[in-house]
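Sequence of 4-methylaminobutanoate oxidase (Formaldehyde-forming) (Desulforhopalus singaporensis).
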Amino acid sequence: MSTALPTHAQVVIIGGGIVGCSTAYHLTKAGFKDVLVLERKELGSGTTFAAAGLLAQLRQNREMSNLAKYALELYSRLEEETGVATGFVRTGAIGVCQTEDRRREWLRGAQMAKAFGIEMHEISLKEAEDLVPLMNTSDLKSAFYLPGDGQVDPVGATQSLAKGAKMGGATIVENCRVTGIVTKNGVVKGVSTEMGDVSCEYLVNCAGMWGRQIGKMTGTSLPLHAAEHLHAITVPIEGLKKHFPTVRDFDGYTYFKEESGGILLGGFEPIAKPYGMKGIPANWKFTELAEDWDLLEIFMECGFERFPALEEAQIRHLQVSAESFTPDNAFMVGEVPGVKNLFVGCGMNSVGIASSAGVGRALSQWIENGSPEEQLWPVDVRRYFPWQQNSRYLHDRVVESVGILYEHHYPNRQRTTARPVICSPLHDRLKDNGACFSMIAGWERADWFAPAGVKPVHEYSWSKPNWFDYQKEEHKAVRNGVGMYDLTSMGKLIVQGRDAEAVLQRLCTNDIAGPIGTSTYTPMVNDKGGFELDVTVTRTAEDSYFIVTAAGTTVRDCDYIRRRIPADSICTVTDVTHGYAMLAVMGPKSRDLLSALTDADLSNEAFPYGTAQEIDLAYARPLALRMSYVGELGWELYIPSNFALTVFDAIMEEGKKHGLKLVGMQAVNSLRLETGYRHWESDITPDDTPYEAGLGFGVKIDKGEFIGRNALEKQKGAVLPKKMVMFTLDENKDVRLWGNEPVYRNGEFVDTLTSGGYGFEIDCPVGMGYLVNKEGVTREWMEQGSYELMVEGRLYPAKLHLRSPYDPKNERTKM
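Predicted 3D structure, token representation.
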């Protein structure tokens, strides 16, 4: 490796682990020649060396799976290109199930795998034993086989990537610690190191366990905390098959692979051991921590059951090291908010080897083109908030984060550690009324309400969770009476200044230049026409707009707008999320209830749909928006936070006369889904356009220039290759849809559902997703098809809906 430090590089990468070397490799493949990798010690000496080297393909969605699939492709050919051995072997993998619930999870995984182009199928226990001769299956319910999975030598693969990067022109400097980052006017300009300063145009933080420390140099929130992580390797075991398929026993928290004739076993503890509360030692290099046999015990218990030969096998090495984990057990990738040209690829959560190839490629695409080839929101660094750097929060959460990978992945599964963080001003009122809380972006939100005598505790299921009947009552109350929910967690931004209108007109596809008091639904799209934001914009003054967005995307959306304000514009963006509570009063009786509390005229003529007014209510003057995300008449009330309690109490008291029912997020979701309302991230992403999503009414091509206009103008009125539709399972009401279920047309797979749930007013399972056809999705083509949805390995006949099955003309919101 080079020992001379250049004074300039086009791209500087901090960290020479497998992700940093992959990023350098892919940048050179993209044509970047002036790439510099700075490694504090030696390549792979931080976390990479301690990995087991497993390459698993199936992830939580198509995009994440594609990242992992690419690793198999790259590492199978990299040695031939570079001459440096990667140790790649395509061993296959077997997932075993101790319980019927786990089998159901794996059945859903198998249907997703098929949809994502990954071979995976259920096999008999005898077939599993034939593939892994010493494995005991007597206690198992089922097994699933993925023949395409593999393994790789982590250090060998890192060295091979480094060699490939250098062959492409990259420079790698070891034993060079970064001490600072230089920015100017919010743009990266260079780094300071122990060996001198380097100016650059782009900077990539691939520093692994040190990523959070590097992030602090620019005030960037990179929530990472290390935990002890281990695996054990036995002496050779007679009769063990060389390179047997990796065995993953999620119920036992343990995985097994062959290593030098013995068994390597490790896993993901449900209660992990945090490490590095006072920082990672400066001399960390291929460091192993003190042996902790107690930490190994849970894996050995599973090991003795799964491989009885382990009881007589001697452990020749117990490797205990450390690795960093994020609060949601998903890694971080992308351009960080607030600093231009500063990228990150770290916090790999023990899937760094399997994800390294895809992450490196995605980062190179991001730097070269301004975005990755596929949307990566589940791992986008902009999902994190500044407060999540808090060290106590990270310490307490990492105890749980490690085990997330192997836990039961039930729908709506909630984290239990590091809570509560953010509470609505109404939290205690909701709790007193029986709220069972869920959490998003740190916010505690009422998920559903337990009646008297019922504990407000989540009991998860793939079939009928314990809140199902209570969700139904809340859902029906909104449809037929009046309900109220607290969505204080919604992101709230104020865009103001002399040029606010011009800035937003350039960003929004809809026309937001209406009179004061106009509320407008609008996408903001990229140059390809894909959704970047999905928001409501309300004009509150000639030079001021109030924007409402989702709780989890507030950082991303605020950063997106700020980056696109021209330097010479007089326009600012302020996040006022915590300054306002939000109560939504929805249902056909909402007008009667609210009219009893205000002297404002709430009639259609005086207060039409899509408008906003400040009204007197209790002793407050909330901003009332006539909008709805649940498909019914209603108002969203944005109340200054210190007035929220009195407004809540007044509505609750008057609500007794109108049958008011408190409503949680589960019902809000089923209400919006039944009405066909889209959700950013699941139903609409940067890879989907408004016309494909059936939201073309939010595009005004003729209003003038805006980002993405050219792309959308070509789509308007054209036959598109995909189109959002809805499905119901009218004949199979006990089947549960949760999203990602494959859709079949005339027996052929077309795509997967983006959202799924139960429509309590239409009384059947309901889902939405895209129909895809390279020749074009016409109405005739859609209606000529016969449709089925695959759920847990079975196909069920589905009814196609070109509009929502409930209130298809969306008339009830305008009653």
